[in-house]
Target: PspC domain-containing protein
Amino acid sequence: MEKRLYLSATDKKLAGVCGGIAEYFGLDSTLVRIGWAILIVCAGSGLLLYIICALIIPKQPLL
Model:
């Protein structure tokens, strides 16, 4: 089966970007959220990247 990146329907706080990335890579979503928060604080471009991801990554299809 082909692995696809989707917004998480079950593990989400805002749009499901971090939950979807965590599911795709098999990580804990808390670690992805901490990494994203560090990106936002240190680099400043993390928020813009999150918005772009939320718009581009498709929603998880219902089975």
Q: What stands out?
A: Residues 17-56 form one domain. The CA atoms of residues 12 and 43 lie 23 Å apart.
